[in-house]
Amino acid sequence: MLHDPLLSGLIARAVAGNLDVAAAEARVREARAERKIAFGAFFPQVTANAGVTHSSRGTARSSPGSVTIGARAKGDLYSASIDATWEIDVFGGLRRGLEAADATQEAREADLRDALVSLVGELALSYVDLRATQERLRIAEANLVSQTQTLDLTQWRAQAGLVTELDVEQAKTQLASTQAAIPTLRTALANAQNRIAVLLGETPGSLAAELDEPRPIPVTPVEVAVGVPGDALAQRPDVRRAERELAAQTAEVGVATAAAYPSLTGLGSIGLEALSPGGLFRAGAATGALAGNAAQTLFSGGQVMGEIEAQDALRLAALASYESTVLAALEEVENALVAYAQEQDRRSSLAEGAAAAARAFTLAQDQYGSGLIDFTAVLDAQRSMLLLQDQLAESEGQVTSNLIRLYKALGGGWPVRQAS
Known about the structure:
Number of strands: 4
Number of helices: 9
CATH architecture of the largest domain: Up-down Bundle
Order of helices and strands: HHEEHHHHHEEHH
Oligomer: single chain
Radius of gyration: 40 Å
Strand content: 15-25%
Largest sheet: 4 strands, antiparallel
CATH class of the largest domain: Mainly Alpha
Strand order of the largest sheet: 1-2-3-4
Distance between the termini: 20 Å
Helix content: 55-70%
Number of domains: 2
CATH topology of the largest domain: Outer membrane efflux proteins (OEP)
Structural class: alpha+beta
C-alpha cells in the first residue's frame, strides 16, 4: 500500500533471512512431528524378531545292568516372528491426544504468522523512521545554510555600523544550536540503518550503501480498510494462538480423564519355530497367538484425580489468557485507530503552520534588511520556521508509522476500500 519498491524488497529479504522467523519455522516443524507421533498411536505397533537359542542340559541314561550319569543333551531352536501390539482407544485418550497435537501445531503456525507480522511491521517502522530522519536532517542542513547567510548579513550590517554586536552573537547562537542538532540526527540515521540490517539477518552497517541516498517518506493512502472488529480479532495471530492453546489444553483434560478408565490392549503374534534353519520353511513350523489385555489402576494415592484437576486448572488459566489477549487486542486496535486519525489532523495543522512560518521568515528578512525591524524578530521567525518544519517532517513519518501500527494491531493488511 505504501508503493515503495525498496521497502518491498527489504521485506522479502527479511522474511527469508530473519533469525526469529527461522526459529518460529523450526517450532512449526517440531509441532508437525509431534502430531505425527500422536497420530501413529492409533495404529498397531508391529515388530519383527528373529533368533536362535542354544540349550544344553544334563541327562541320565540307563541300559540293562548299568546306569550312566552326567551325559549332556544339546540342541538349537530357530525362530522368526512378527508381533503386534494395539492399544484400543475405547475411552478417547488417543483421540484427545491427537486433538491436543493438532491444536498445538496450529498454535505454532500462529506463532510463525505472529513473527512474520511483527517482523514486517518492525522493518516498515524502522524504514519510515529512516526516511523521516533523512528529511529532518535535510531540513536542518537547509536551515544551516539559511542561518549562515543570516549571520553573514548581520556581520555586514555590524561592520557598517547599522546594528550592534548583539545581533551578530544572537545569529551565531542560532547557527550553533542548529549545528548541534545535526550529529544527533545522523546518529539516529545510523541506528535505523543498523536496525534494518539486523532484521534482515545481516551485520550492522551492511546496508549503508543501499540506504544512504535520501528518499521521500512513504505516503499513506487516503482511505484504509479495517474490516469488522470480530474479523480483525480473528486475523490477529496472537488471538489465534491463544485460542488454539486453549483448545490444546482442553484436549489434555480429556487425555487425563481417559487415564481413569481401563486400558485395553490387543496382542498378536505369528511366527516360525524349528530345530534347524531349513526347518523354518517346512509344514508344522508355524506358530501363532492372540491375546487381549485389560488394565485398570485400582489405587494410586489420588494421582489420577490430581492429574485431572491439574490439567483442568491449566485449562482455566489458558481460558483467562485467551480472554486477556482478546481485550488487549481490542485496546490496541482502538488506540491505533485514534492515533492514526489524530496524527493526520496534526499533520494538516503543522503543514499550514510551516508554510506560514516560511512566509513570515521571508518578510522578516526583507524588513530587517531595510532596517524596519530589529534582529530579534528575524531570529524568532527563523526559529519558528525550523521548529515547524522539523515537526512536520516528524509528523509525516508518524502518520505512516501509525498506519503500520494499525495494521499490526489488526494482524495484517488489506487493500484500499474501493468506492461503490
